[in-house]
C-alpha cells in the first residue's frame, strides 16, 4: 500500500473510532441548529431566510470543536516525531491528515446538512445551494484550522485558544459561503461569483494551510 | 554598525539609551504642533466640530495596520534569519497594535454616532478592523500561553504571517464591498480629495503618532530584553541549587 493511502486510512480510522468520532461533530451541529429557533423564535419565514447562515455557522463551530485532535494525539504518543524523521515531505503528510480529518468530521456535517435544513424550512433549491457551498467550503475550514492546530500543538489545553485563533482567519470562507448560499433566494445577487471565490479560498488554504502547519510542527517537535 | 551588530542585545540597549531622549523630544514637539493645528483647523461644513475626531482616528487606524506589517516583517526576520531581536520586536509590537486598533475602533464609534446615527455598522472596513483587533488579542494570548519565549517565537511568527494575508483584505475591502464607510480619500491615484487645511494637521498628527509608536516600541523591547535576562538568571539559579547551598555555607563561615 502506498504510504499516502496508508496514512489516510490510519488517520481516518482513528478519527472515526476514537472518542465518539464522526458522530460527535454531527451531534454538536444538530444541537446548534436546534438552539437557533429558541433564540430567534419559531417564525418559519425568518428561519427560511437565515437558515443557510445558521447551517454555515453550525458547520464552522462543529469544525472548530474537533480541530485540536488533528495533531494532538500524534504529538502525545511520539508519532509526529516519526513523521518528521521518516523523510517524507511534512507538507504532504499534513495535507493527507487534513483530508482524513475532513472525511471523518467535515463530510458527515455536509451529509447531515440536507436533513437539518428541513428543520429550518429551507426551500429545495436553498438546500442544494447550502450543501454545495459546504462541500466546497468545509475543507477550507479544516485546512485553515490546521495552521491553528499546528501552532497550538504543544499546549496542554489549547482548544479554546485554537478556536479564537482560527475564527478570524476563517471569516472569508464564511462570507463567500453564506453569500453564495443565500444568493439563490434573491433575484439580483449572483450565485456563481461568491462560489468561485469560495473555491479560490479553498485552493489557497490548500497551499497555505499545510505549508504553515508543517513549519509550525517542525518547530514544535525540537 | 550593521544589521548583525543589532543582533547583540547589549548593543541594542546602549543604542536605545542614546536615541530615546531625542525621540521623546521629537514626539512631544510633533504632538504639540499637531494638536495645535488640529484645534485651529477650520470645521468641516457638514461635520462641524466632530471632524476633529479624524485627527486621532485616522492615525490610530494607520498605526493599527502599520504595526501588523511590522510584526509580519519581524516574523520573517525571526523565521529566516533567526534574528533574536526580531522575536522581541514582534512580541513588543502586539499589545501596541491592539491598543491602536482599539483606539481606532473606539474613536470610530464616537464619530459614527453623530455622523451616521449609529455606534457600529457591519461595514467591510469596520468589520475587518474588528477582525484585526481579535487577531492581535489572539496573538497576545498565545504569547502569554506558551511559557518559553524562545520556543514560542517561531510558531507565533507563522501565525502572524498567515494573518498578514488578511491585511490586504482590510485595505481593499473598501473597494470590494463599497458600503457606508467612505472610500479611501488620502492615498488615491488622482491625489487627495481631502482639503489641505485638514490634510496638513492630519499628516502632522500621523507623524506624531508614528514617533510615539517608535518610542513605545523601543521602550517595550527594552523591557522584554530585561524580562528575558531576569528569566534566564532565575533559571540558572534554580538549576544550580548546590551553588546556592555552597554560597550559603561560605556566608555562614
TrEMBL record, chain A:
Q: Which UniProt keywords apply?
A: Cell inner membrane, Cell membrane, Cytochrome c-type biogenesis, Membrane, Transmembrane, Transmembrane helix, Transport
How is this protein annotated for GO cellular component?
plasma membrane
Q: Name one Pfam family in it.
A: CcmB
In terms of InterPro entries, this protein maps to:
Cyt_c_biogenesis_CcmB, Cyt_c_CcmB_bac
- Localization, UniProt: Cell inner membrane
Where is the chain membrane-spanning? 21-40, 46-71, 92-119, 125-148, 160-183, 195-217
- Record GO biological process: cytochrome c biosynthetic process; cytochrome complex assembly
Membrane topology listed for this record: Multi-pass membrane protein
Q: Name one GO molecular function term.
A: heme transmembrane transporter activity
Q: What biological function has been recorded for the protein in this entry?
A: Required for the export of heme to the periplasm for the biogenesis of c-type cytochromes.
Homology family: Belongs to the CcmB/CycW/HelB family.
Protein name, as recorded: Heme exporter protein B
Source species: Pseudovibrio exalbescens
Automatic annotation (TrEMBL), chain B:
One GO MF term on file is: heme transmembrane transporter activity
Gene Ontology terms: cellular component: plasma membrane
Q: Which domain of life is it from?
A: Bacteria
Q: How does it sit in the membrane?
A: Multi-pass membrane protein
Under the heading InterPro entries, the entry gives: Cyt_c_assembly (IPR002541), Cyt_c_biogenesis_CcmC (IPR003557), Cyt_c_biogenesis_CcsA/CcmC (IPR045062)
Task: Identify the keywords attached in UniProt to this record, alphabetized.
Answer: Cell inner membrane, Cell membrane, Cytochrome c-type biogenesis, Membrane, Transmembrane, Transmembrane helix, Transport
Entry's transmembrane regions? 20-39, 59-81, 93-112, 124-143, 155-174, 194-219
**Where does it localize?**
Cell inner membrane; Membrane
Q: Does the keyword Cell membrane apply?
A: yes
- Cytochrome c assembly protein domain spans which residues? 7-181
User: Record keywords: Metal-binding included?
Assistant: no
Pfam families the record matches = Cytochrom_C_asm
GO terms of biological process kind = cytochrome complex assembly
Q: PANTHER family in the record, alphabetically?
A: CYTOCHROME B_B6 PROTEIN-RELATED, HEME EXPORTER PROTEIN C
Q: Explain the purpose of this protein.
A: Required for the export of heme to the periplasm for the biogenesis of c-type cytochromes.
What family classification does the UniProt entry report for this protein?
A: Belongs to the CcmC/CycZ/HelC family.
Give the protein's recorded name.
Answer: Heme exporter protein C
Annotated source species: Pseudovibrio exalbescens
Amino acid at each position: 500500500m502506498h504510504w499516502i493511502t496508508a496514512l489516510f486510512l490510519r488517520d481516518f480510522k482513528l478519527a472515526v473510532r476514537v472518542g465518539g468520532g464522526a458522530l460527535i461533530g454531527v451531534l454538536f451541529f444538530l444541537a446548534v441548529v436546534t438552539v437557533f429557533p429558541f433564540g430567534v423564535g419559531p417564525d418559519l419565514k425568518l428561519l427560511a431566510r437565515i437558515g443557510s447562515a445558521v447551517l454555515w455557522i453550525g458547520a464552522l463551530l462543529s469544525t472548530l470543536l474537533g480541530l485540536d485532535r488533528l495533531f494532538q494525539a500524534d504529538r502525545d504518543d511520539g508519532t509526529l516525531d516519526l513523521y518528521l524523521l521518516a523523510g517524507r515531505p511534512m507538507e504532504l503528510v499534513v495535507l493527507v491528515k487534513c483530508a482524513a480529518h475532513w472525511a471523518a468530521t467535515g463530510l458527515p456535517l455536509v451529509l447531515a446538512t440536507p436533513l437539518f435544513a428541513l428543520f429550518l424550512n429551507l426551500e429545495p433549491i436553498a438546500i442544494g445551494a447550502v450543501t454545495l457551498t459546504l462541500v466546497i467550503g468545509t475543507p477550507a475550514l479544516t485546512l485553515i484550522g490546521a495552521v491553528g492546530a499546528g501552532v497550538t500543538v504543544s499546549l496542554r489545553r489549547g482548544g479554546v485558544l485554537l478556536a479564537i485563533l482560527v475564527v478570524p482567519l476563517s471569516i472569508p470562507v464564511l462570507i463567500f459561503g453564506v453569500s453564495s448560499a443565500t444568493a439563490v433566494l434573491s433575484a439580483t445577487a449572483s450565485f456563481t461569483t461568491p462560489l468561485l471565490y469560495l473555491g479560490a479560498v479553498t485552493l489557497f488554504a490548500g497551499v497555505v494551510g499545510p505549508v504553515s502547519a508543517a513549519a509550525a510542527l517542525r518547530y514544535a517537535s525540537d | 554598525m550593521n544589521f548583525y551588530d543589532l543582533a547583540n542585545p547589549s548593543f541594542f540597549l546602549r543604542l536605545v539609551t542614546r536615541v530615546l531622549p531625542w525621540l521623546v523630544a521629537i514626539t512631544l514637539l510633533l504632538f504639540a504642533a499637531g494638536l495645535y493645528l488640529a484645534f485651529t483647523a477650520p470645521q468641516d461644513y457638514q461635520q462641524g466640530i466632530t471632524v476633529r475626531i479624524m485627527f486621532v482616528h485616522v492615525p490610530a487606524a494607520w498605526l493599527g495596520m502599520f504595526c501588523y506589517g511590522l510584526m509580519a516583517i519581524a516574523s520573517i526576520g525571526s523565521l529566516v534569519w533567526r534574528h533574536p531581536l526580531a522575536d522581541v520586536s514582534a512580541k513588543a509590537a502586539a499589545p501596541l497594535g491592539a491598543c491602536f486598533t482599539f483606539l481606532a475602533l473606539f474613536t470610530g464609534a464616537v464619530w459614527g454616532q453623530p455622523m451616521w446615527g449609529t455606534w457600529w455598522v457591519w461595514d467591510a472596513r469596520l468589520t475587518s478592523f474588528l477582525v484585526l483587533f481579535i487577531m492581535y488579542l489572539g496573538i497576545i494570548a498565545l504569547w502569554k500561553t506558551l511559557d518559553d519565549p524562545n520556543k514560542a517565537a517561531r510558531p507565533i511568527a507563522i501565525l502572524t504571517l498567515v494573518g498578514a494575508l488578511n491585511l490586504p483584505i482590510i485595505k481593499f475591502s473598501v473597494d470590494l464591498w463599497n458600503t457606508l464607510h467612505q472610500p479611501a480619500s488620502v492615498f488615491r491615484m488622482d491625489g487627495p480629495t481631502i482639503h489641505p487645511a485638514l490634510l496638513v494637521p492630519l499628516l502632522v498628527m500621523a507623524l506624531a503618532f508614528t514617533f510615539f509608536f517608535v518610542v513605545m516600541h523601543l521602550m517595550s523591547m527594552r523591557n522584554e530584553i530585561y524580562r528575558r535576562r531576569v528569566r534566564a538568571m532565575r533559571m540558572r539559579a534554580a538549576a544550580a541549587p548546590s551553588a546556592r547551598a555552597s554560597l550559603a555555607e561560605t556566608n555562614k563561615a
